[in-house]
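[audit] Reproducing an earlier prediction to check determinism. Same input, same settings, fresh worker. If the tokens differ from the archived copy the diff job will pick it up downstream; this log only records the rerun itself.
[audit] input (91 residues):
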Amino acid sequence: MSNFFKGVWAAYPDSSLELISMGDTGGGLVATQFVFRGTNTGTLTDGTPATGRTVTQHGATFYQFEGDKIRSERAYVDMHDTLKQLGLIAK
């Protein structure tokens, strides 16, 4: 498991990931839409102390396959919205 994901699970130990949709867009590209939910009870990956707040983060990923191997992955989330939910920036 990557250090990034270890940091996310440490910051949100009760986290859940719900897969909303997944589809093959052609040419080996697969798109997914997801919702991440969790309560920030651990230190964030940038060292920010826990806020105790719950977040709901919508996102999408795009996987490029070559044969049976993933060649690349791109993930997109609205971090501005997440920071607002955590109370770290003004609404």
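[audit] rerun output stored. Observation attached for the diff report: Strands lie at 16-26, 29-39, 54-66, 69-77.
[audit] end
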